[in-house]
């Protein structure tokens, strides 16, 4: 369990009441990882939703036999990752690797789901915030993809 004061300032919880944050704090534990540690692997059962406290985490995809993965995103303090834990089939789709010594708050996803079922307002506000976070990531990914495939402008001169 962590102190609610360690969570209340985080953007993902800013729509929740103090009591709701206190309930989430009861099902949250602080974890520390050294640089190059894996917090979870792609394909693992997703049991926790993570909020960055300190450090830097890269979310990557490694396919069998790959020595180098494709880095999709990084998470800094305040960042959220592992949302696959809150959605069926509860399987992580990327590998989370620490680029620095890192501290996270690991929220038990099954117990969080139970809290949200008991308090639909909390579930609504939490999912609204998670949806906003992921929509911003979607827009960033869409811009990046557009920039990668954008056809360069070709200027031709006509005779005369």
Overview of the molecule:
The protein has 160 residues and is an alpha+beta fold. It has a single domain, classed as Jelly Rolls (Sandwich), CATH 2.60.120.10. The chain is 30% helix and 25% strand. It has a 4-stranded antiparallel sheet with strand order 1-8-3-6. The chain has a 4-stranded antiparallel sheet with strand order 2-7-4-5, with no helix packed on it. A hairpin with an 8-residue loop joins strand 4 (57-61) and strand 5. Helix 2 packs across helix 3 (120-149). It is globular. The termini are far apart. 25% of the residues are buried.
Helix and strand arrangement:
Elements: H1 18-25, E1 28-33, E2 38-40, E3 48-54, E4 57-61, E5 70-75, E6 80-81, E7 95-98, E8 102-108, H2 109-118, H3 120-149
Antiparallel strand pairs: 1-8, 2-7, 3-6, 3-8, 4-5, 4-7
Helix pairs in contact: 2-3
């Amino acid at each position: 369990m962590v102190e609610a004061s360690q969570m209340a300032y985080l953007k993902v919880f800013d729509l929740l009441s103090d009591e709701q944050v206190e309930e989430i704090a009861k099902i949250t534990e602080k974890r520390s990882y050294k640089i190059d540690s894996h917090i979870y692997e792609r394909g693992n059962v997703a049991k926790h939703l993570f909020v960055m406290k300190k450090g830097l985490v890269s979310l990557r995809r490694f396919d069998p036999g790959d020595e180098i993965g494709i880095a999709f995103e990084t998470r800094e303090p305040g960042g959220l990752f592992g949302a696959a834990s809150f959605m069926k089939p509860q399987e992580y789709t990327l590998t989370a690797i620490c680029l620095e010594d890192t501290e996270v708050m690991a929220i038990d996803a099954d117990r969080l789901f139970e809290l949200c079922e008991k308090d639909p307002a909390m579930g609504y506000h939490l999912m609204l915030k998670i949806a906003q976070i992921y929509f911003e990531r979607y827009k960033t990914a869409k811009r990046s993809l557009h920039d990668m495939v954008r056809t360069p402008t070709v200027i031709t001169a006509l005779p005369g």
